[in-house]
Design goal:
six-stranded parallel β-sheet, alpha/beta, Rossmann fold, 10 helices, Glycosyltransferase, single chain, transferase
Length: 195
């Protein structure tokens, strides 16, 4: 997906992408606030729908970021990879407001890396593990807009960006359903005593 044409953005402007529900506990207010600290010319795009849409739009307006924070309604699952591939950096800003969020390993990890997209993520256990082991992400404090801006800036650094992209693509190629299915079936057979 060409975000530049869709949103009438300058050609080559880096895109920071969040895709998913616009809901409380996802740290989207932190993402909007962090946009002010992104390098000049970087745009934030949120693809999804939810209760926080209007609130986030108002926040962007109040912070003077309405020209840098953009919203696209949710798209069909089979269309999502084309949108994901059009970004420069993904964001997983979940906040530890529940055990579910704290321990989450969201589908976004695999959606982003499946198209070679590096990401910035809240410093939560599973997200930190992926960032450290795969080298495809950086982490930041879940409630810290400055930390998120720093993480995104680091990934976008021309000296680092290609390394992050390669690491994301490598992780994505290793962690596909086709590969995971073999592990799952093998483990099920072992537990059932069929091996």
């Amino acid at each position: 997906m060409d975000f530049h044409a869709l949103l009438d953005l300058p050609l080559g402007a880096p895109i920071v992408l969040y895709q998913g529900g616009l809901a409380a506990g996802r740290g989207l207010d932190v993402l909007v606030a962090a946009t002010a600290g992104f390098p000049e010319g970087v745009h934030t795009v949120l693809v999804g729908s939810g209760r926080q849409r209007d609130e986030l739009g108002r926040q962007a307006e109040e912070l003077g970021l309405a020209d840098r924070v953009h919203f696209i309604p949710a798209v069909l699952p089979h269309e999502l990879p084309a949108y994901t591939a059009g970004a420069s950096v993904g964001v997983i800003p979940y906040q530890p407001v529940s055990d579910n969020n704290f321990m989450a390993l969201p589908n976004k990890v695999f959606e982003y890396t499946g198209v070679g997209l590096p990401f910035a993520a809240s410093d939560l256990p599973e997200l930190r593990r992926i960032a450290e082991e795969a080298g495809c992400a950086t982490v930041y404090g879940p409630f810290d807009p400055h930390g998120l801006a720093t993480a995104v800036t680091r990934i976008l650094d021309p000296a680092e960006h290609e390394t992050y992209r390669r690491s994301a693509a490598n992780f994505g190629q290793r962690n596909t359903w086709e590969n995971e299915r073999l592990i799952l079936v093998s483990e099920a057979k072992r537990i059932a005593g069929w091996e």
